[in-house]
Design goal:
One of its GO terms (biological process) is biotin biosynthetic process. Pathway: Cofactor biosynthesis; biotin biosynthesis. Pfam families: Aminotran_1_2 (PF00155). It is built from 16 helices and 15 strands. By secondary structure, the protein is an alpha/beta fold. It folds into 2 domains: 122 residues, Aspartate Aminotransferase, domain 1; 232 residues, Type I PLP-dependent aspartate aminotransferase-like (Major domain) (Aspartate Aminotransferase, domain 2, 3-Layer(aba) Sandwich), CATH 3.40.640.10. The strands form 3 sheets. A 7-stranded mixed beta sheet has the order 4-10-9-8-7-5-6, sandwiched between helices. A 4-stranded mixed beta sheet has the order 1-2-3-13. The protein has a 4-stranded antiparallel beta sheet with strand order 11-12-15-14. Strand 5, helix 7 and strand 6 form a beta-alpha-beta unit. Helix 3 runs antiparallel to helix 13, helix 5 packs parallel to helix 13 and helix 15 packs across helix 16. The radius of gyration is 23 Å and the shape is globular. The N terminus and C terminus are likely disordered. Bound molecules: 4'-deoxy-4'-aminopyridoxal-5'-phosphate. The site of 4'-deoxy-4'-aminopyridoxal-5'-phosphate has 13 residues, from helix 6.
Length: 423
């Protein structure tokens, strides 16, 4: 914490706001603990500066950014359900009954029957005994990991796990051992030399690469070494497995194999929030111990109703999954033929590997000039030297949309092969 932010720094004075704000800026710029301005400048020089894009209108797949129409290939709305009319109706219809806000945390008076119904639906959908609804996937991972492991325990975490898993591990105060991406042999060696409580945690589908964790093997070594396995299937739920039940069910793994299954609802499900599913005993324990569940306002109950509607749709509509997979197959064949480097992914996450940060930004900008929105993903989200364009597909995309992307990629390929090209 910067030492110069003294107790006298009150920014808000209705009679005289501007001198106080100016004083705050002056203090920040004089602060010797950290030079914020030059850190930001360094980020810009390295091509790592992050900006936010202002979007208007419904989000998928055509959107308006700064008044300009763009076709988006970078959202996680894999099934095109974020703007589905049935889900919007479910939300609208629920509001008179539930009101808007969650009003309090679940343990005070915020646990509405709509939340309860959603939890039961999520348990049935994932083939688990019970489920617990969290406000976001980030909070689910923080809460679940820090509740299930603590001082003296050991967590084993895949090197490419999502930031929220990494932060959950840090928060737990357990010893953390990271194993090479997907390397079950390395994990097993670590498990064999560790005593005490062990928690293994992995993404089901890796968010920046699109590949799937070796879940069958992970379940086997966890069983052999008495480790609890937690799978964050944020990008598999709705997309993989029978009726979209996720990567664990695609691999034929039951609650005994994967006792802790985490999923998010803001991606393929198209709403917001997250859940953990598993044995009732575990859910009971999490209600007592998961601080990000206990100390936060419950999600709007109407959103829970819309989420149930969306899950009903996911379960009965296999055509959406088939369509998005057909887009993926065609994209992979064409982009590879053009000479783009892809990752070994069979999910709607199809990164184009570029390497340099500036190069990735240049390719993203070139696509934007052609009416397409595809974000450049740079370190620290991905390892140094592995900047990429994270192309994602949605059932809301048509084959014509895909043709437009392929056409643009074809012209941009030539631009990028020119020496030092900055488009
Ligand atoms: N886990 C993974 C693997 C993710 O990719 C994300 C978000 N991108 C999260 C958790 C966090 O989920 P949420 O956006 O609901 O906070």
């Amino acid at each position: 914490m910067c030492a110069c932010f003294g107790p006298s720094l009150a920014l808000y004075n209705p009679g005289e706001p501007y001198p106080l704000v100016a004083r705050a800026y002056e203090l920040i710029s004089r602060c010797t603990v950290r030079d914020f301005a030059s850190e930001l400048e360094q980020r810009k020089q390295a091509g790592l500066y992050r900006t936010r894009r202002l979007i208007s209108g419904p989000q998928q797949p055509a959107l308006v950014s700064d008044g300009k129409p763009l076709l988006s290939f970078c959202s996680n709305d894999y099934l095109g359900l974020a703007s589905h009319s049935g889900n919007l109706d479910a939300l609208r219809n629920a509001l008179p009954d539930t009101g808007l806000g969650g009003a309090a945390s679940h343990l005070i008076c915020g646990h509405h029957e709509a939340h309860h119904e959603l939890e039961q639906r999520l348990a049935r959908f994932t083939g688990r005994s019970s489920a617990l609804f969290f406000s976001t996937g980030y909070m689910a991972n923080l809460g679940v990991i820090s509740a299930l492991a603590g001082r003296g325990d050991t967590i084993f975490s895949d090197r490419l796990n999502h930031a929220s898993i990494i932060d959950g591990c840090i928060l737990s105060r357990a010893r953390v051992r990271r194993y090479a991406h997907g390397d079950v042999v390395a994990l097993e060696a670590m498990l064999a030399e560790t005593s005490g409580h062990k928690l293994v945690v992995t993404d089901g589908v890796f968010s920046m690469d699109g590949d799937i964790a070796p879940l069958v093997e992970l379940a086997r070594v966890c069983r052999a070494h008495d480790a609890l396995l937690a799978v964050d299937d944020a990008h598999g739920i709705g997309v993989l497995g029978p009726h979209g039940m996720g990567s664990a069910m695609e691999a034929g793994l039951s609650e005994q194999d994967v006792p802790v299954l985490i999923g998010t609802l803001g991606k393929a499900v198209g709403t917001s929030g997250a859940f953990v599913a598993g044995p009732e005993l575990l859910m009971d324990y999490l209600v007592q111990k998961a601080r990000t569940y206990i100390y936060t306002t419950a999600m709007p109950p109407a959103l829970a109703r819309a989420t149930v509607a969306s899950i009903d749709l996911i379960e009965r509509d296999d055509a959406r999954r088939a369509h998005v997979m057909a887009l993926v197959d065609r994209f992979r064949a064409e982009a590879t033929a053009m000479g783009y480097e892809l990752m070994p992914s069979r999910t709607p996450i199809q990164p184009i590997m570029v390497g340099g940060n500036h190069q990735a930004l240049a390719l993203s900008q070139a696509l934007e000039a052609r009416g397409l929105l595809v974000s450049a993903i740079r370190p620290p989200t991905v390892p140094d030297g592995e900047a990429r364009l994270r192309v994602t597909f949605s059932a809301a995309h048509t084959m014509e949309d895909l043709e437009q992307l392929l056409g643009a990629l074809s012209s941009c390929r030539e631009l990028l092969t020119q020496e030092g090209a900055e488009v």
